[in-house]
Amino acid sequence: MQQPIRPRRNRKMAGVRDLIRETTLTTHDLLLPLFLLEGQGKKIEVSSMPGIYRYSIDGILKEIEEAMLLGIKAFDVFPVVPETLKDKTASYSWAEDNFYLHALSSIKQHFPEAVVMTDVAMDPYSSDGHDGLVIDGEIVNDATLDILARMAVAQAQAGADIIGPSDMMDGRVGAIRAALDAAHFTQVSIMSYTAKYASGFYGPFRDALDSAPKFGDKKTYQMDPANRLEALREMELDTREGADMLMVKPALAYLDVIRLLKEHSQLPITAYNVSGEYAMLKAAAERGWLDYERVMMETLLSIKRAGADVILTYHAKEAAKLLR
Ligand code: PBG
Question: Does the pLDDT of residue 1 top 90, yes or no?
Fold first, then answer.
């Protein structure tokens, strides 16, 4: 049989495969999320995320130092706020003595070259456990914007390089951009959670932060997993409102949405490989059902191949070790 065209010739040896490889994952693509506890000397594992710990600031600084030695340069810090400090309006998020804001300053002091990203949403500080302000059982949009803007300015003041609005309120990118600019933080970036879906894959994260909603769910603000065009609509709005980078979240069940935004936007696309995605691989590995390192690298590569320029992932340190 004549077979002039044989794709296998391009796979015949490692050297050829290396030459023609289309996608390469590098440590520079990775952004490591971290969970911050109040106080000193604390380290508590997240039970649904083996290998991931909540640290007080001393431990966070050590984690960042280790990660930077591995070549990771960017970090997204989330606060675990004690229940007693939560209220309806998330007022602790901009309080003078806020341990999270102090920690951000301390990170920037120790590691000026580290890219520090923050989370803007009410849920870690809200007694209702929602990302927006709750009035009579409803998540109120426009009144939430003032709160988010105030939170973002407080984080910028503390030294944040990138603000990450994860709340999905309408108009929040514009409101935050205007507030940052008015406070002369024109150089502080916004990585918008553009297409954030109402997903079951956030479960372990809510365990880590004790931030699960006290009633209802997040479906009136996070996107319906069935929708694609709506992601384009959110993309257009966030772009017009001044976002510097756009995020798709979660990553794995939404690779098509990552590709969609990559093909339609001129902005860098980021993907959040979320807590539940991390937990799935860890659980299967613990049972000996999957080769953890292999599927982790395959997973991260698939997110990059789909079109993500940046990947927020709890695997960042493990992956960086393998990439060295
Ligand atoms: C909260 C927020 C969530 C995550 C990041 N910011 C959870 C949620 O929306 O309920 C999830 C991250 C993860 O699962 O790793 N605004």
Answer: no
pLDDT in tens, 192-237: 999 999 999 999 999 888 888 999 999 999 999 999 999 999 999 9
Residue at 258: amino acid letter: I
Task: Using the mean position of ligand 1's atoms as its centre, give its distance from the Cα of residue 207 in Å.
Answer: 10
Overall pTM > 0.85? yes
CB 30 within 8 Å of CB 316: yes
Gap from CA of 150 to ligand 1 centroid (Å): 20
Cα–chain center distance at 277 = 13
Instruction: Read off the amino acid at residue 100.
Output: Y
Q: List CB contacts of 290: < 8 A, sequence separation 6 or more.
A: 281, 284
Please provide the average confidence, as pLDDT, over all residues in the chain. 97
Q: Tens digits of per-residue pLDDT, 282-297? A: 999 999 999 999 999 9
196 is catalytic: yes
Q: Cα–Cα distance between 183 and 191 in angstroms, integer?
A: 18
Give the pLDDT confidence score for residue 209 in this predicted structure: 87
Distance, CA of 72 to chain centre: 15
Residue found by looking up tokens 């431990």 in the block: 59
Nearest to 323, CA basis, from 58, 70, 76: 70
Rounded Cα distance between 78 and 35, Å, is 5
Catalytic residue among 86, 196, 262, 282: 196
The whole-angstrom separation of Cα 242 and Cα 178 is 9
| Whether the Cβ atoms of residue 122 and residue 168 lie closer than 8 Å to each other | no
Residue 313, ligand 1, Cβ within 6 A: no
Average pLDDT over every residue of 315-321: 98
